[in-house]
């Protein structure tokens, strides 16, 4: 979704802002713009489309200055266009503003402003905030901001440059992230960490309705009443390089190739490698509490929801604990059976997904014990959840989640083992044996990555396919959901995931000559059943690609292509089998010439409902 960056310091801010916008481009956008204090006036440049267009505009009409704000807009109110692009100003040009989020009561405020003579240039809710601030401004930016914020409903992150105070950036937010840092004679704000990494890794996260005043010499913070407050910075241990593409053509390929490392890093945070035991205090339940659980509820969105589906299989199978998984946007407005004190887990890579945050808050209101699986230290979810199981995937830039999904399912797998041990479902020896086996998975993944040309070759022959069905049973069905999402989001090929046994209850009507069916068959105890389902689609003209856990002779007559992952414990196989699925999606998308890292209409961090 939209990206914000603001800078004040001793450098020319234009390259800083452009680098920041480029670092945030992965969030998804359809126009970009800058406002810079140039000598004695606010200068704006805005362009529809890619950041490249804004760069070209800046070549034709350069600008420079020591303070400015920039934005990448993902259209909500008003089509993507130069006029609707941010920054926006009030009629008198007393200020320029960039905004993430949605102002829900913007029409009411707009009518009031029109009745007081304001003339609007764009269709955006953001211009309403600009005009409102201009209307309220009487020479004191902080006062105007406090008043304006008290009138706004909805979600917002705002960075503002006032013409009367041109070396200062004012910021505030509600339900939309903002992160700030002070570097060497410079202060910078952005809507996400990657834009700050070049300047500082000690950052402060804004909380709802707080106000930040950025100056070259430092950052002042105020609460919503204008009372000065102190904030302690959080240290981010991501390095600058980890958020760069390096020699890879796409971030997505880089991030898939980082999966063995992500595996080891996350594993070692929760497992003591010297004796292959779980670091049991890293999990948010002790033995008595783990034994007291009757049910665990998991809520999340998108890929994180699919991680929850696989987590359910792990936890139910190993820990004998019932798990309910729900989509956050459904949970937040639906009826709930949750009771006071019940365990409730959200999963989120970014920690900023609006629906997941709302679900977490609802569970807290209901008195649940809240926990989160999260990748970003300091994010809203990591701050608000009762306890956090961090994933150690590092920054993920491609819109399509890959290594973060892997890290989530690793943490869920380890949580299942820990619950199993504490609930008396598995002995210490059995857990240790499983952890030893698990430590071999990264090497098995590496083998797949070293032979990825096989997958590339398959994709080069299959990219014209119109429909792909991913089928599986048990854990493989949960995996199929993520495999199908990966393919459709980056290649735009229609794909569906089906429980293999359910296909014949309707969806098999869609199978025709040339359909591709990917049969995930890593669970030996279910292979005979899978063989029948594969045969059902093969005889109806589908090309069947089977993914197996080690060799499976029985697949031969029923499938046209077979990919084997190295043989491992059945429960571990899904952790490895996701890699060829992500590679298949990647290569099909590349073959089709799709913009792999920034697929159309999608955003990395969905901070609106
Ligand atoms: C968006 C992203 C997905 C992601 C989902 C949930 O839709 O495009 O990749 O899975 O949001 O995001 P979260 O940050 O909460 O995991």
Characterise this structure.
The protein is α/β, with parallel strands linked by helices. It has three domains: 3-237, 4-Layer Sandwich (Glutamine Phosphoribosylpyrophosphate, subunit 1, domain 1); 245-439, 3-Layer(aba) Sandwich (Rossmann fold); 449-594, Rossmann fold. Helices cover 36% and strands 24% of the residues. The strands form five sheets. The protein has an eight-stranded antiparallel sheet with strand order 3-2-4-1-10-9-11-15, covered by helices on one side. Helix 9 (302-319) packs antiparallel against helix 17 (475-491). The chain starts with a strand and ends in an 18-residue tail after the last helix. 6-O-phosphono-alpha-D-glucopyranose is lined by residues 301-304, 348-350, 353, 356, 399, 401, 602, 604-606.
Compile the SSE list and pairings:
Layout: E1 3-9, H1 13-24, E2 31-38, E3 41-48, H2 51-60, E4 67-73, E5 88-89, E6 95-103, H3 106-115, H4 125-136, H5 141-151, E7 154-162, E8 169-174, E9 179-182, E10 186-190, E11 202-205, E12 211-215, E13 218-222, E14 228-229, E15 234-235, H6 251-257, H7 259-270, E16 271-272, E17 277-278, H8 287-292, E18 295-300, H9 302-319, E19 322-327, H10 328-331, E20 343-348, H11 354-365, E21 369-374, H12 380-384, E22 387-390, H13 403-422, H14 428-438, H15 441-450, H16 452-462, E23 467-472, H17 475-491, E24 494-499, E25 516-521, H18 527-538, E26 543-549, E27 561-565, H19 573-591
Parallel strand pairs: 18-19, 18-20, 20-21, 21-22, 23-24, 23-25, 25-26, 26-27
Antiparallel strand pairs: 1-4, 1-10, 2-3, 2-4, 5-6, 6-7, 7-8, 8-12, 9-10, 9-11, 11-15, 12-13, 13-14, 16-17
Helix pairs in contact: 3-4, 4-5, 7-13, 7-15, 9-13, 9-17, 15-19, 16-19, 17-19
